[in-house]
């Protein structure tokens, strides 16, 4: 295991770049989460949660339909989504960069 020298200071630029990268990742995650929530509502309104009569899954199927719809929405976002997350991220980034 290599030795770690804890007395060597980290350059301020490296610290600020690391903090900025983490902040950007949090903004992107929040934007993607919001897009997924939006898509889940839209998929639900479009009837994605309706179960076909042939399956007859009963109350259990009804309870888990919203979870499946949310999983579908999250998968859509992970594969590019509809572009909403990119717009939200850009706006959040502009707002936070302006306050720095």
């Amino acid at each position: 295991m290599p030795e770690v020298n804890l007395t060597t200071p980290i350059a301020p630029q490296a610290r600020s770049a690391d903090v900025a990268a983490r902040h950007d990742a949090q903004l992107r995650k929040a934007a993607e989460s919001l897009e997924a929530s939006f898509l889940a509502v839209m998929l639900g309104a479009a009837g994605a949660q309706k179960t076909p009569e042939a399956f007859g899954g009963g109350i259990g199927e009804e309870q888990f339909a919203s979870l499946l719809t949310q999983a579908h929405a999250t998968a859509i976002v992970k594969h590019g989504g509809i572009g909403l997350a990119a717009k939200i991220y850009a706006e959040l980034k502009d707002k936070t960069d302006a306050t720095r």
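Residues 13-98 form one domain. The first helix runs from residue 12 to 45.
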